[in-house]
Design goal:
By secondary structure, the protein is of the alpha+beta class. It is 38% helix and 29% strand. It is built from five helices and eight strands. The protein starts with a helix and ends with a strand.
Length: 133
């Protein structure tokens, strides 16, 4: 009984391998298509004139004096015209620092991200550091 199962299995494998050997193969070049679209894509860039991030996100002296510091990570969309929307805090050491970032982030302007020469929505993640030093 067991020997018959092995024979049937071996015969099935042999038939399947012949079936695949007779199939016509066609080359699909997906990698080059993907590379082309990536080469023609640009990430959004912060427009000049904003200065440094520390200028754009002021660090209140009261928070600095109380030792509240750290990195706030904010996530947002950059629209095809370079505006910021749908912002949310991903990580923050305090609610006060989160409020500072959320109150100012949507005033930032970017040169929009593009794909194939057209502006597109791009989800961004940005760390903003509030340092005591």
């Amino acid at each position: 009984m067991f020997v018959n199962k092995i024979k049937i299995f071996a015969l099935s494998v042999l038939l399947v391998s012949f079936a695949f050997a007779d199939m016509e193969t066609k080359s699909i070049d997906l990698v080059s298509d993907f590379s082309f679209s990536v080469m023609d894509s640009k990430e959004p860039k912060l427009k000049n004139g904003h200065g440094s991030l520390s200028d754009f996100f002021p660090y209140p002296k009261s928070l600095k004096a109380n030792g509240i510091s750290g990195q706030v990570i904010v996530e947002f969309d950059v629209t095809p015209i370079g505006r910021v929307t749908n912002s949310k805090i991903v990580q923050s050491p305090s609610n006060e620092l989160s409020e500072i970032v959320l109150s100012r982030i949507e005033f930032m302007e970017f040169n929009p991200g593009t794909q194939n020469g057209k502006g597109v929505y791009v989800r961004q993640r940005m760390p903003i550091v509030f340092d005591n030093n």
